[in-house]
Specification:
- The complex is a heterodimer of chains A (335) and B (236).
- With 335 residues, chain A is α+β, with helices and mostly antiparallel strands.
- Chain A has one domain: Alpha-Beta Complex (Sulfite Oxidase, Chain A, domain 2), CATH 3.90.420.
- Chain A is globular, with a radius of gyration of 19 Å.
- Chain A is 18% helix and 19% strand.
- The longest helix of chain A has 9 residues.
- The radius of gyration of chain B is 22 Å and the shape is globular.
- The two termini of chain B are 12 Å apart.
- Classes of the chains: A alpha+beta (335), B mainly alpha (236).
- Chains A and B meet through helix 10 of A and helix 2, helix 3, helix 4, strand 1 and strand 2 of B.
Chain lengths: 335, 236
């Protein structure tokens, strides 16, 4: 399959009119004070909102219920339907692709877009192994054979900003079912590609490269957990973690490891990049939780990108159905 | 000896350099060159500029020691006040735009976060210095003025600490995003070290020997032939 980003610049206007995107940013230009409601009203102008099918318990939050055709432009009927289950309209592709915490390229959020331009995502192999019955390596085309779904999820960064992103991808459960975890497998460990020649940030000795992350097997098997291969119906842009990244919408953004090359089932809780650097600040679970503060940032509120005011942060980022995974667990101790 | 005829290059440069970033930020804002999260971007950029000017304030005296440029000490106040200006703008964005003057929220935030407490301390140290920067106070406060303005040293260090603590990094294991605050911290410590009397005397000595040698090459006929033990430039 041809995995080139087809006309991604030209498609901005099809997804979100540029005038709308520009209007979002007028607030500072005009002396800095435009109320959040005025902004929201401006946002609604072109909103042809069509939320996910109600009344069906098989439809997951943020699922728009359509299978996108990767590598082609967004089908007509999908226009304007990129809305999460709470009615939040997705951020623009411009926003999603120009504000990236991707330290492999840069610690600045704007520069990964340009620095990742020539990042090679083909050929790509994801090794799946460890405590599994059928270890195997997957090419990207193999991964795209899993049923691709559209999920519009909120992404809450630990730095207290958030976005709504219309991912396409497949449930991690589908892949795990295929490799069959052994009975003693309790955790899933993920590793990003290590390639300092292509990723200038990996030359920075201040970080324990490569990036690693982990999930409890129950979390990994939850149907909200996906491996994203695209967004807005396009293949994943390089700065957003191409060609395949993890998306766990009820956890802080840094759990969503990008450019995955290795998935390993383990018995012991795996180390992760940020908890190696700052164990007292970045816990293994890192569930979005407004009542448990990060030592640096309050987690009570967040700024949705494109808005001036702050929103209250929701427990589990609004994905209450995952609460049962943590029944009886002290979420303050297991931050 | 005051030279009144020369063009005040240094003075003009300080003012131009100080206003340039602000002009750029306004321009960047109007033309959407800030990040997609412009409030945070403004807040952080203004904070960083404040740090640069704070460190520049510490650099004035050592630069004077190194070069002997007589106009330098007169620029120290302006440099310090520009640092204060950017710190205030940084604070104004935090209060007004980031937290929309939600005082209850700000209070809860500040008391719970070390980096914010440290930031508040930095501002509290800077305020009396800015207020007493007028000639009137310098005249009337006498020796106390100098004592008070000694607070600039801890103020700069505390500001850099605030910067470092706001980053995703570990100061103790030197991991994470701490390179930039680390460099500014090292620079500030070096500039403070240059003030220690033995270091300062040494620097002055080196400068004078260099000056003497230079003058010797240029105008050999003017060489002072007597013994120079006083440390005073014999050509003066």
């Amino acid at each position: 399959m041809q995995r080139k980003l087809k006309n991604i610049d030209g498609s901005f206007s099809e997804i979100t009119p540029e005038s709308l995107y520009l209007s979002r940013r007028d607030f500072l230009k005009t002396a800095g004070i435009v109320s959040a409601t005025a902004f929201l009203a401006a946002c609604g102008v072109s909103a042809n909102q069509q939320s996910s099918t109600p009344g069906s318990n098989t439809v997951l939050p943020g699922s728009a219920g359509l299978t996108p055709t990767l590598g082609t432009t967004v089908p007509d009927n999908a226009k304007g339907s990129f809305t999460d289950e709470l009615g939040n309209k997705a951020n623009t592709l411009q926003e999603i692709t120009n504000y990236n915490n991707y330290y492999e390229f840069s610690v600045d959020k704007q520069t990964p877009a340009s620095l990742s331009k020539n990042f090679k995502t083909s050929p790509w192999t994801v090794e799946v192994g460890g405590l599994v019955q059928n270890p195997r390596s997957y090419s990207l085309d193999d991964l795209l054979k899993f049923e691709q779904k559209e999920r519009t999820y909120r992404l809450r960064c630990v730095e207290a900003w958030s976005m709504v992103i219309p991912w396409t991808g497949f449930e991690l459960k589908d892949l795990l079912d295929q490799v069959q975890p052994m009975s003693n497998a309790k955790y899933v460990a993920f590793t990003t590609i290590l390639d300092p020649a292509q990723m200038p940030g990996q030359a920075d000795r201040f970080y324990p490269w490569p990036y690693t992350e982990g999930l409890h097997l129950d979390e990994a098997m939850h149907r909200l957990t996906i491996l994203a291969t695209g967004l807005y119906g396009h293949p994943l842009p390089n700065q957003d973690g191409a060609p395949v990244r993890l998306v766990v919408p009820w956890k802080y953004g840094f759990k969503n490891i990008k450019a995955i090359v290795k998935i390993e089932l383990t018995e012991k809780q795996p180390a992760s990049f940020w908890s190696t650097i700052l164990p007292n600040e970045y816990g293994f679970y890192s569930n979005v939780n407004p009542s448990v503060d990060h030592p640096r940032w309050s987690q009570a509120t967040e700024r949705r990108i494109g808005e001036t005011g702050r929103r209250d942060t929701l427990m589990f980022n609004g994905y209450d159905e995952v609460a049962s995974l943590y029944a009886g667990m002290d979420l303050r101790a297991n931050y | 000896m005051k030279r009144t005829t020369h063009f005040p290059w240094l003075r003009i440069s300080v003012h131009v350099l100080a206003w340039l970033p602000l002009v750029y930020l306004i321009y960047a804002n109007i033309t959407n060159r800030l990040t997609i999260n412009p409030i945070q971007d403004l807040e952080q950029v203004l904070g960083r500029i404040a740090i640069y000017w704070l460190v520049a304030t510490l650099a004035v005296t050592p630069l004077y020691t190194l070069t002997g440029w007589p106009d330098l000490p007169n620029r120290r106040r302006a440099v310090g006040l520009y640092a204060f200006l950017y710190a205030c703008l940084h604070l104004a964005i935090f209060f007004g735009l980031d937290y929309a003057f939600n005082l209850a929220q700000i209070w809860n935030l500040v008391i719970g976060k070390v980096y914010l407490l440290v930031g508040v301390l930095a501002v509290l140290l800077l305020i009396p210095l800015a207020i007493t920067s007028f000639d009137y106070f310098k005249r009337t406060m006498g020796r106390n003025w100098k004592r008070l303005h000694w607070l600039m040293y801890p103020a700069v260090i505390v500001s850099i600490l605030h910067y470092a603590l706001a980053q995703k990094g570990n100061l103790f294991t030197l991991q994470g995003n701490i390179l930039r605050p680390f460099i500014w911290g090292v620079l500030a410590v070096l500039l403070l070290a240059l003030r220690l009397p033995p270091v300062r005397r040494r620097v002055i000595g080196v400068r004078r020997r260099l000056a003497l040698r230079l003058h010797r090459n240029e105008t050999p006929e003017k060489i002072y032939t007597g013994k120079s033990t006083s440390g005073i430039n014999p050509l003066k």
